Amino acid sequence: MSQNTSNKLVFFDKEKYRHPSTYQLLPFSFTHHSDDRYIISNDSGEYTFLTQDELGRVISRELSPGSDLYLNLKGKFFIADTIDDNLLNLLATKIRTKKSFLYAFTSLHIFVVTLRCDHSCGYCQVSRQNVANTKYDMSPETADKSVDLVFKSASDTIKIEFQGGESLLNFSLVKRIVLRALEKNKTANKNLQFIIATNLSNITDDQLEFCKLYNILISTSLDGTEDLHNANRPLPSQDSYKRFSTNLERVRSKLGYGGVSALMTTTTLSLQRPKEIIDEYVKLGFRSIFLRSISPYGFATRTKNLSFYETEEFLKFYKTGLDHILNLNRKGIELSESLAEIILRKILTPFPTHFVDLQSPAGVGIGAVVYNYDGLVYLSDEARMLAEMGDKHFALGDVHQNTYAEIFTNPILVNALNQSVAEVLPGCSDCAYKPFCGADPTYHYRVQGDEAGHRPTSGFCQRNMGVIRHLIDLIESGDQEILDIFYSWINRTSVRETKELRS
Length: 503
Ligand code: SF4
Hints:
The chain is an alpha/beta fold and 503 residues long. The chain has two domains: 22-98, no CATH class; 105-410, Alpha-Beta Barrel (TIM Barrel), CATH 3.20.20. The protein contains 20 helices and 18 strands. The protein has helices spanning 52-59, 68-75, 85-98, 101-104, 140-150, 171-188, 205-213, 226-232, 240-255, 274-283, 304-307, 311-330, 338-348, 381-388, 404-408, 411-418, 441-448, 459-475, 480-490, 495-502; strands at 2-3, 9-10, 24-25, 29-34, 37-41, 47-51, 79-80, 108-112, 157-163, 191-197, 217-221, 260-265, 288-289, 291-292, 336-337, 368-371, 376-378, 395-398. The strands form five sheets. Strands 14-12-11-10-9-8-16-17-18 form a nine-stranded mixed β-sheet, sandwiched between helices. A three-stranded antiparallel β-sheet has the order 4-5-6. Strands 1-2 form a two-stranded antiparallel ribbon. A hairpin with a 5-residue loop joins strand 5 and strand 6 (47-51). Helix 12 runs parallel beside helix 18 (459-475) and helix 13 (338-348) packs across helix 18. The longest helix is centred in the middle third of the chain and has 20 residues, at 311-330. The protein is globular. The relative contact order is 0.11. Residues 494-503 have low confidence and may be disordered. The structure holds iron/sulfur cluster.
């Protein structure tokens, strides 16, 4: 600025402010990664590594035009010769593609058809009820109202997932919902899919026949070897694993191998046994495993012997497990790890994933929503679990009392979404791992008291950052075989996409 003859402050011509260098900086974040290496990334998902000296020279705009580093950074939209409409349009297209999960709105609709369950798992994420306690079943009226709401979603794809408790204990209602949804879809013409989450302990031939008839997928739980599975997932008859493995064969012979997938939950009993757990999945013919940490909800918080461990312990378990899975792949055994697969898709492709906790904003309500047995609608499965613990903070409405618009514009949902935009969250906004990460407002509300949370002390952040850093190190290790394995994982699609949504 300068003063003119009439003593008024005026701006110099804009050319005066231009840096003498030939290039300009585009927005990016940088984070110390290891030793003398800094990772820089931008919102289009591009990343690269720089030494501290290189980072300083980039920011001071001292790079020589035409140098390898200059061209690399220019190609990845970290710097530009000139910022014009063509460049901005290209960048906007890349960012729009990364955020394309926002176009569809809610595609996964979870129906909690009963809280009854025959198992008494120590980490159970809901307040399970006794098998005879039918007052915790969803009523037909609530089911019908919920199906009507499902079909108000703008999404072209509708996935209805049945959960419990043990969902098959209320199978008559499952059938009613499937048939009503199919009827409604005659005019709605959605891509309609069904998934039943079940422990498989009592699945009947009639139920399997129904699944076959309507292409219903099965999502089940396997925690590892027989002793581990039985310890984590106790039945009074102490034969949870035997029932599981026997019925798995029955399901596969009816629905095919692709018709059933399994999820595992990591407890303290699992921590020392990642290889055995993974080998069990291979033995039983699964082609993917999801090494999942425990959620801080429901009975998980009350049975600390099974459920309480530090994030560092989980990361050690995870890395050992991933290493073992890579070795199996090297020997020709096809097995992917689902969390890695989701994050790798974000790192190695221009596309987003639909994993609700690894999106920004989070997928709560807009990716997945829960219709509880009592008619209340929750923005996520974790929010419903929180309600079972006595806190209904995330209830969006009641299917009997509220319209679709009232439920999906509820200020609770709007606030949760506002508080889950990583690009503006304290801690995340500056983090270079942000394009590969996400936000989880339910977790942070539960653990830290508000939806935004505090990243330096967040287990969610520690786990995600640990896994993302490890995967990037593996990608950058120069081992082409690892890269080939990773690409083979992200090019496979199937039941796992559904698993992505529900987790
Ligand atoms: S949660 Fe942690 S790792 Fe993820 S973007 Fe935020 S600060 Fe980075």
